[in-house]
Design goal:
single chain; Rossmann fold; nine-stranded mixed sheet; four-stranded antiparallel sheet; about 30% helix; about 30% strand
């Protein structure tokens, strides 16, 4: 009763009052102060599998719209830092038109040709393949090509710390200031926190190309509570980034399973506008790398499966495997008739 009277008295003095209290959820529903207050911020913390996550909700803000949902925040030496829940604004979607006519080079001429002229601007590309197949090398060439034509880029590297991950070529791009690196060393991240850092760096650098390497490492870096809705959160993040007009390349590690054909560990293949598949095959007792374009939404592309090799941080595409069969089984055999 005292708090209620205090709030009313402060209002009559035209004072902006900030009241702090500790309530459990059932108490909040019955407390009269919640009906008197013009605005209510509900802060909570959740411990899930040894990870603590802090969240904030704008329950009420009289006379004005508020951002719905739960927003994560951190408490640091500089105070409270809030990471708003990622929501694609309808106005941004209406203003931005992605036609697919303008394309970006991947930095590999033969791959651009296979993709029908390159990757359409504003698309999300998923590069899948087993460990060591060349996903990060291809991502580096994608960023390097952007820098060459004056398009800055940003990379969020989750596989290792930046100092361990960066190749000599990528390290030069970062030191030149043309490619920004998102610090992903903090544990118990939320997708909204990562997206906040990405959007901030994209706006600051006016970046046109974004690389997320990789989705497997990204999921492990998240707090356990966020892994449960990883697919939904990833959808929101990709929508926001492509809604800004940037082109996104994501890598995902996928073990070679020759009994079935999959393009994502999480069933996230539908989120990508384009998919490139890298894999190993055995030919004449040797491991060979092959590449193919699985899809590019709204665009024609090559159906060939082609050899490729990696040397000096460069991916080089070779000839199509037109004279082989059983490629997707992992053990390719010659389709040519035996010589007499």
């Amino acid at each position: 009763h005292f708090v209620q009277q205090l709030g009313m008295q402060m209002t009559s003095w035209q004072a902006t009052t900030f009241l702090i209290g500790e309530y459990l959820a059932p108490e909040a529903e019955a407390s009269p102060i919640f009906t008197v207050a013009d605005g209510i911020l509900w802060m909570s913390q959740l411990v899930h599998r040894d990870a603590m996550v802090r969240k904030m909700q704008v329950v009420k803000m009289r006379g004005q719209a508020q951002s719905l949902g739960l927003h994560t925040f951190r408490i640091g030496n500089d105070g409270v830092q809030i990471f708003p829940r990622a929501i694609l604004k309808p106005s941004a979607d209406a203003e931005l038109q992605i036609s697919g006519d303008k394309r970006l080079s991947m930095g590999v001429p033969a791959l651009d040709e296979m993709m029908g002229g390159g990757l359409p601007v504003g698309y999300s590309l998923l590069v899948v393949g087993p460990s060591g197949s060349g996903k990060t090398v291809l991502a580096t060439q994608f960023l390097a090509e952007g820098v060459r034509i004056g398009e800055p880029g940003v990379i969020a590297a989750f596989e290792k710390s930046p100092n361990q991950l960066l190749s000599h070529r990528l390290n030069k791009l970062v030191k030149s200031g043309h490619v920004g690196v998102i610090d992903t060393r903090a544990l118990d991240l939320s997708i909204d926190e990562t997206l906040h850092d990405l959007v901030d760096m994209i706006n600051r650098m006016k970046a046109k190309r974004v690389v997320i390497d990789s989705l497997s490492g990204f999921e492990l870096a998240l707090a356990a509570v966020f892994r449960e809705d990883f697919r939904e959160s990833l959808y929101r993040m990709i929508s926001v980034l492509t809604g800004m007009g940037v082109t996104v390349l994501m890598t995902a590690e996928l073990e070679d399973r020759y009994t079935d054909l999959r393009f994502s560990s999480y069933g996230n293949a539908f989120l990508a506008d384009a998919i490139i598949m890298l894999r190993y095959v055995e030919i004449s007792g040797q491991f060979k790398r092959v590449i193919s374009i699985v899809k590019i939404r709204g665009s024609a592309h090559s159906k060939d499966i082609r050899f490729f090799d990696i040397a000096h941080d460069q991916l080089t595409i070779g000839e199509p495997l037109t004279h082989y069969q059983g490629i997707l089984s992992g053990q390719a055999t010659s389709a040519l008739p035996p010589s007499v």
